[in-house]
Amino acid sequence: MADIHGAFDDLFAAVPRALADLLDAGDAGGSVAVLVDGVPVVNVWGGYADAGRTAPWRRDTLVNVYSVTKTMTSLCALVLADRGVLDVDAPVARYWPEFAAGGKERVLVRHVLAHTAGLPDWDPPLATEELYDRAAVTARLAAQEPLWEPGTAAGYHSLTQGFLVGELVRRVTGRPLGTFFAEEVAGPLGADFHIGLPAEHDSRVALTVPPPDRDEEYASGPGPATRLRVRDGNGPAWRRAEIPAASGFGNARSVALVQSAMACGGTVGGVRLLSPDGCARAWEEQFSGENRVLGMPTRWGLGYGMFGSTYGWGGWGGSLVMIEPETRSVVAYMTNQMREPAEDTRGLEIVMSAQDGIGAMRK
Fold first, then answer.
1. Active-site annotation holder among 31, 67, 260, 329
2. Which of 36, 38, 93, 358 has the least C-beta neighbours within 10 A?
3. Is 113:286 a contact under the CB 8 Å cutoff?
């Protein structure tokens, strides 16, 4: 069995076993955290931070969590909504006047958070290096016409959602999304999560490992679209850039800590990020039905996927966070090992391994 490091409550012994099973099956490395009432009951890690299996995964190893970053970006918008400076029922153009071009004057802030704004990609799609110019990519979104009547359909805004929410945050606060997150969320909580990673942390990064039999040219998404290769995600330009939908770097401990605010009515570790009503707003269903981009049924709240009484989202490559307000719990699994999406059930397996322990704590 793979060596697992860290600590866990005896009620949660199934969680490190589940992580060990994944490593024994060939995964490079990963970390898992479970928080209940904002208190860690699992914080474990194991495996390696590199494809060659020479650098061990450590307690402070960071990994690109890709679209799990959306939960952090959406949280920033919810914090501002709770403070009364961002109205989710207002048109985006109230805060970003240029956005009204192309017939988008009726796009609401809530449409952007729920992937129903009709802007799932740029037309034409961008090259990866173009994503590093925030002003240019947001200007193109502001000028673009929506693909459908906003609010009537959902299509996963894989990269655009982060730029749309990030620009709203910037217009309201005068600060880039990554700076706002660092100063208003990660900093107060002491969470080791970064949107736009300073070079000083590069030595802690576990580079993404492509799926078996794939190389670093392996890319996200099919067909003509703005796509990301593993090679791009592993490069320093990507780490430095602020891609609010996908360039977050952290580990299971930091992701679970931040999202525990959403599980615990807005306050974790004595730090209040938002009110209980502000948290509840996130779980109001915005859309349920076929997703035009993913080709499968999805349910969306304000920035979070909805799965019964559980909320959260996953990232390209397998990382996942799930939040359950009813039990005030969060399960986070972060990995550097990709698998083919159609075959990847690892995050669900980790979440399920924690359920007996969470249930026992709630008896």
1. 67
2. 93
3. yes
